[in-house]
Amino acid sequence: MTLNFRLNAVALHTTEGEVRHEFASDLTVLEGPTGVGKTTLLELIKYGFAAGDARLATVATDAVNDVAIDVSIGDEQFLIMRSLDAAKSKNVRILDMGTGERLPDHSVTDGEPSFNSFLLGKLGLPDDIRAAAQKSKSSRPGNRVTFGDILKYVYVPQYAVNRDIADSRDGYYDPKRKVVFELLFKLTDPEILAMQSSVNVLNGKIDAEAANLEAILTFLRDSNTSTREEVEQRLEEAVAEQERAQDELNSLREELDPVIDRQTQVYRDLLTDAERTLAEARAAVQDLTREREEIALEQRRVKADRARLERMRDAGARLANIEFSVCPRCMQSLKNRTVAEDQCRLCLQPDPVSPEQAADSYELRQLELQLDEMDAQFEATEQQLEKAQRAVADRATLVTSLTETLETRTSQRVTPRLQAFSDASDRMATARTRQENFEGALQQWDRVADIEREVKNHRSEQERLKANIAVRRAALAAHKESVLTRIEEEFRSTVTSLKIATVESAGFDRDNYLPLINGKVFTKTLMSGGGSMTATQIAYWTSLITVARETDTCYPSLLMIDGPRLALNTATETCAAIYKRLLKGVNEAPGAVQIIISDNELPDDYQGDFARIKFDYRHPTVSTVRHPGEGQVTVIASADE
Predict the structure, then answer these.
(1) Measuring CA to CA, which residue among 502, 607, 592 is closest to residue 551?
(2) Given this model, what pLDDT does residue 255 score?
(3) Which residues contact 570 (CB under 8 A, 6 or more apart)?
(4) Angle between helices 362-414 and 262-320 (to 10 degrees)
(5) Quick one: average pLDDT of 83-105?
(6) Which residues contact 587 (CB under 8 A, 6 or more apart)?
(7) CA-to-CA distance for 406 and 177, rounded, in angstroms?
(8) Alpha-carbon separation of residue 334 from 338, 370, 421 (angstroms)
(9) Buried (b) or exposed (e) across 248-269, using 16+ Cβ within 10 A?
(10) Is 468 helix (H, G, I), strand (E, B) or coil?
(11) CA 149, CA 176: separation in Å to the nearest integer?
(12) How many CB atoms lie within 10 A of CB 123?
């Protein structure tokens, strides 16, 4: 049986107030001329479910603030509210009508909790199902199945009713459409789909590893290492060559060691001692040179102080010899004054110091003593420096002599073997380089073995998954055959009852799950005139929901079809048959399914137990907003074509 999925009501919160539409009947017809907003209402329902890009009319985007959907799913009932404001539309508010509990807001994007996961969970489906292609070479895990994919089996929009079935004309969408069909009719299960996705992922890994393996093998072929055994053999040869060269170098080093006789050892000891004393002498020269410079600097400072004192003494002597004839203050004559010999001629005070006493001042005498000491110290330092410089020259001559003597004693043993030492070093370096190259090649062969092992493991895992898939599909084969046979029978019966003009034969493609019309798949059939394609779609969708109602499925019990009569104006007989078929579908099992049809008008003789909601230009679907009148709006289908 179908999964209970019923639309109870839709409320539109507009700028001018609330508009509410009830759907209490199993069959509801939204009737009215083109442009009154029937498609707008259905697209707002799609928008409320966040099931893909809804085609919203201007009246919706300009005047509708929120859409609230009262929906029953299984045994539960929810009020789903979504704002049309761009900033608020990313979250959906959910109220559990049974308990009165306000659930956390759910995100329609990638946030948590996810509204898509919420809806799939209520349908009994996990939110991580992937629709992997079943082609043997596919390497993609498949796109994730969303509630929007489920809604394609619930809502047939106006722009598709005379053209397409669940986007079957879009080749890229084909794997997902088939997977959704199989899930809804339980012809597969999430475990099979997960395993198929893993099989495809393993295909990609195997292909990538095979390409990597080929690249490595090409490199190895170019390096003239065709097999691993050849590389190992050449590596052993390179290691052996390196060891032989190393042994030869060790032997040459022993032969090149100087002759350790008594006299040579004495010369070596003398050379070591001479080099040590030479270093000490050079250090002494540096210290004495620095000390001499410091003494000279101090001498210049003391001489400057002495010169300053001498200038002061000379200035005092010069001032003492000045004879004043008048007072420099009051300008009175001093010539007639009697002045004692030891008094100042000007102030008549005693003269405290004579020029001779100032010349022998204490400070000047101290400076002279310092200069005398520095001269003696400078002379002694000069003598020590000359002695140290002679010692450096003597030690340098001794070092040169001892070095020449040692070189003469050892040159006859070293020189003839230098070429042999150089040759052995070159051979060892070459052997080491070859060894590194072969070790690198051996690592590549190790990588080849690793990749081959990974490929083998992946193929084993893939075969295991394929076997499990085959077992599970075999278990579902009988059920699948039964369901597809019943769909085909129901479809043929419905097509016959609809009396579609251009249809000579009808069937059901069991690979694509699409109608067969006149021996061709629906998407490859050119059906024109009399609304033949629309009538075929009605037959297809009603057949699916009828079989789902009679079979164990998770197929939603809701079917919404927008505008079938638009293409059936000239086929009144077919149009009447379609509505009879719809009425039959709901009357056979009251409450089992719900069908909502949007159409321009009903056939004259159409009668039955159904709800009929009429709209016109004075009473559009968004009735709180004044309709501009017939021909004054751009209908949604026309705007998007």
Answers:
(1) 592
(2) 61
(3) 529, 530, 531
(4) 160
(5) 94
(6) 26, 608, 609
(7) 96
(8) 9, 46, 109
(9) bbeebeeeeeeeeeeeeeebee
(10) helix
(11) 8
(12) 18
Check residue 4 and report its DSSP letter. -
The torsion angles phi and psi of 94, rounded to 5 degrees, stand at -130, 130
pLDDT tens digit string along 563-597?
766 656 555 677 788 888 888 888 888 999 999 99
Superfamily of domain 5-208+499-640: P-loop containing nucleotide triphosphate hydrolases (3.40.50.300)
CA-based nearest residue to 556, from 125, 184, 90 = 184
Residues 5, 62: Cα–Cα separation, whole Å = 30
Report the sign of the C-alpha dihedral through residues 572, 575, 581, 587, in that order.
Answer: negative
Peptide bond into 515 cis (omega under 30): no
Over residues 616-628, the mean pLDDT reads 88
CB of 621 closer than 8 Å to CB of 41: yes
Q: What is the pLDDT of residues 185-242, one digit of tens each?
A: 999 999 999 999 998 888 888 888 888 878 777 776 666 666 766 766 777 777 787 7
Where along the chain do its domains lie? Answer: 5-208+499-640
* Partners of residue 506 on adjacent β-strands: 517
Identity of the highest mean pLDDT range in 32-46, 131-145, 603-617:
32-46
Is residue 90 a contact partner of residue 108, using CB atoms and an 8 Å limit?
Answer: yes
Residue 300 has pLDDT above 80, yes or no: yes
